[in-house]
Specification:
7-stranded antiparallel sheet, globular, 6-stranded antiparallel sheet, 32% strand, alpha+beta, single chain
Length: 252
């Protein structure tokens, strides 16, 4: 179960701050964020070497997209398309609103259930795809992410049924927001690295399970306001559990 934290501040010099912990099996091979795709030279993203997609991507237009599993849908299915394609599809667009609209027209039944966040300096969207039931057909639904702080895991956006959201959302709300100007991300880094007691371990921000399912990387991303010409986004990446691996700048 991965986690995304989204801070939206319209009118701020840095209107979007995003933090992401990726939880995955330790034996699934991957590469750190870079320009891995020759046919997508405008995209920086981590590479899932097993399926060829990504979990988190950023393009040169400052659109960021991340995908998460829904409950009970960890892992791939041979008969379905990889969910790792979806962030790459999103960052083929120059604006988050266009990306969200395009993804909404995809056939949800081709993928295992997922949550997605697609955002830029102006808009942010949460997309959800679940299996159809007798009362609801397969489909991809989209909602705007509200201003201020939100969290998403395998559950719905800001859903208190998620133990991780219930436990940590208020802590992120009261923590000092990252300051990309000075490079101070310390309070969010501390929360992203937090491990629980043995009983709380699966619901900690930073997971380490005996079966090899663990937090394997962490990202911190900041997008500048659109009128700040020449100011580039910031992406800091920890290539391992964030209590052990240092955050290093990603070359954008």
């Amino acid at each position: 179960m991965c986690t995304l934290v989204i801070l939206r501040r319209p009118g701020h010099a840095w209107p979007l701050i995003l933090a992401a912990n990726r939880d995955e099996m330790l034996d699934r091979p991957w590469k750190s964020p870079a320009r891995h795709w020759p046919d997508r030279e405008h995209v920086v993203a981590g590479l899932d070497q097993l399926a060829g997609g990504t979990w988190l991507a950023l393009n040169d237009d400052s659109v960021v997209a991340g995908v998460l599993n829904r409950p009970g849908s960890l892992g791939s299915a041979p008969e379905m398309r990889s969910r790792g394609e979806l962030p790459l599809e999103a960052v083929d667009h120059a604006e988050a609103c266009g990306a969200a609209a395009a993804l909404g027209h995809l056939e949800a039944a081709n993928y295992r259930p997922f949550n997605m966040v697609v955002a830029d300096a102006i808009d942010a969207f949460w997309l959800r795809a679940e299996r159809g039931t007798a009362h609801r057909a397969d489909g991809i639904e989209a909602w705007s992410v509200p201003d201020e702080l939100s969290m998403i895991t395998a559950y719905d956006l800001n859903d208190p049924a998620s133990p991780r959201i219930s436990r940590y959302r208020s802590q992120f709300e009261t923590a000092r927001a990252p300051d990309p100007e000075t490079g101070d991300w310390s309070e969010w880094q501390t929360l992203l690295a937090a491990r629980g007691t043995v009983d709380e371990a699966l619901n900690a921000m930073n997971v380490s399970e005996p079966d090899g399912f663990s937090t394997i990387s962490s990202s911190l991303i900041a997008l500048p306001a659109v009128d700040r010409f020449g100011v580039r986004p910031v992406w800091l990446f920890a290539a391992g559990p964030p209590d052990r691996a240092p955050y290093e700048p990603v070359e954008l």
